Amino acid sequence: MTVYFIGAGPGAADLITVRGARLLAASPVCLYAGSLVPVELLAECPEGARLVDTANLDIEQITAELARAHADGHDVARLHSGDPSVFSAVNEQMKRLDEAGIPYEIVPGVPAFAAAAAALKRELTVPTVGQTVILTRIAQRATAMPPGEDLATLGRSGALIVLHLAARYADRVVEELLPHYGADCPAAVVAMASRPDEIVLRGTLDSIAGQVKAAGVIRTAVIMVGRTLGAEQFRDSHLYSPGRDRGSCGS
């Protein structure tokens, strides 16, 4: 058997990858976070599949479910919202599977920041304006941030910052980034990206926190701050430039 850590995407059920959907349809056991993974995806599970909502389970209980499936010889679809590579708590699960000798694979998914950029109709990297995207969060009740990864330090780069798990603390985000980005810096918040109840807020660093409060957004959202969000004057990329020598390119 194999445990498949599958990125279920940001919310819309049809944003799961073809590979992820195929494995989900073939796995007789499915573990999913009921508070984050769209329930429509569960319809893809095979008839009679064991469905386990992990929203209220701790890591040891989740591991026990995976071990049970392993003992029964059943593949497991372990659905995670977004993509498993960021803010997914996959590491601690893989560590325990390694210790137990249980095989697993990772199937990437569409991350929340990509769905948010799509909702904003923005490319996050713009020639001559910004070529760096920082994915981060802030310290609050969860795990503390490592030294040097606070917003005051990261903000000195001037790069586009994408904050997960921070909508509830929008005022704090603004306070820490204002000295580095300025009050007029473009900012946006996308909540429930790709879902029917998606909320898109656009503004500047000095206005976005008020919009977040007015909209009642406190979770399932990303905050974006950076000049590329409002870039209108920029040089075209070299990729499709008429002046580019394409003689050495393949057919």
Automatic annotation (TrEMBL):
SUPFAM superfamilies: Tetrapyrrole methylase (SSF53790). Belongs to the precorrin methyltransferase family. This is Precorrin-4 C(11)-methyltransferase. GO terms for molecular function: precorrin-4 C11-methyltransferase activity. It comes from Streptomyces rhizosphaericola. It is an enzyme of class 2 (transferase). The gene is cobM. Its EC number is 2.1.1.133. Pathway: Cofactor biosynthesis; adenosylcobalamin biosynthesis. It holds the Pfam family TP_methylase. Keywords: Cobalamin biosynthesis, Methyltransferase, S-adenosyl-L-methionine, Transferase. NCBIfam families: cobM_cbiF. Residues 2-208 form the Tetrapyrrole methylase domain. Coiled coil: none annotated. InterPro entries: 4pyrrol_Mease, 4pyrrol_Methylase_sf, 4pyrrole_Mease_sub1, 4pyrrole_Mease_sub2, Cbl_synth_CobM/CibF, Siro_Cobalamin_biosynth, Uropor_MeTrfase_CS. GO terms for biological process: methylation.
